[in-house]
Amino acid sequence: MSIFDRLNNGIDTNSPDETIAVAALLAKALPSEAILTLEGDLGAGKTTFVKGLAQALGIQELITSPTFNIFNTYDSGSTTLIHMDAYRLNPQSNVIDELMLEDFMTPPYCLAIEWPSNLGELPWPVTIQLEFTITAAEKHRIRCIPG
Fold first, then answer.
1. How far, in Å, CA of 27 to CA of 54, rounded?
2. CA dist 104 to 22, 73, 80, 108, 130, Å?
3. What's the predicted TM-score (pTM) here?
4. Do 136 and 121 meet the contact criterion of CB atoms below 8 Å apart?
5. How confident is the model at residue 98, as a pLDDT?
6. Measuring CA to CA, how many Å separate 32 from each of 52, 105, 114?
7. Are 79 and 109 in contact (CB under 8 A)?
8. pLDDT value at position 120?
9. What is the structure's pLDDT at 43?
10. Rounded to whole angstroms, how far apart are CA atoms 44 and 134?
11. How many CB atoms lie within 10 A of CB 77?
12. Domain boundary assignment for the chain
């Protein structure tokens, strides 16, 4: 079963290491220009997931939440990871134009956006939409949202 099939069904993780492993599998299956949206509960593993993407892309830097920076860029030498956290943004603003994200979106790249609903409609096609939840059994579930 492919990582996409597994995500369509939902994958439960029991630890940050398991969340990182799921992200690593997905990173290997992504096209060279990927835009991921990560929506869901606070503390459900979105930033941890991005850490897994970074590791799989060969990025050695420490990955932290860009809540106050809005976005961070990381370069592995062969791929750029752009990690955006839109938690504090207002969907009514035209912040996408102001951030000039497209300047960093030169292939190959992966743009991972936490809290994308705070941006309104995105001007780019989304490769995969992910939802992160905490289950009643206190597991973290990662699921692909049908587009």
1. 8
2. 25, 8, 8, 10, 22
3. 0.91
4. no
5. 67
6. 17, 11, 20
7. yes
8. 80
9. 86
10. 6
11. 9
12. 3-142
| Close Cβ partners of 89 (under 8 Å, ≥ 6 residues apart) | 70, 95, 115, 118, 119
Tokens of 67: 């809540």
* Contacts of 21 by beta carbon, 8 Å cutoff, 6+ apart: 52
Selecting from 3.30.450.40, 3.40.50.740, 3.50.50.60, 3.40.50.300, what CATH number does the domain 3-142 have?
3.40.50.300
- Of residues 46, 54, 14, the one with CA closest to residue 139: 14
Can you tell me which residue has the tokens 């949206």?
A: 37
pLDDT digits (tens, 9 = 90+) for 16-38: 999 999 999 999 999 999 999 99
Residue 105, pLDDT score: 78
Residues of the chain falling short of pLDDT 50:
none
Residue 131's SS3 state is: strand
- For residues 103 and 10, the answer to whether their CB atoms sit within 8 Å is no
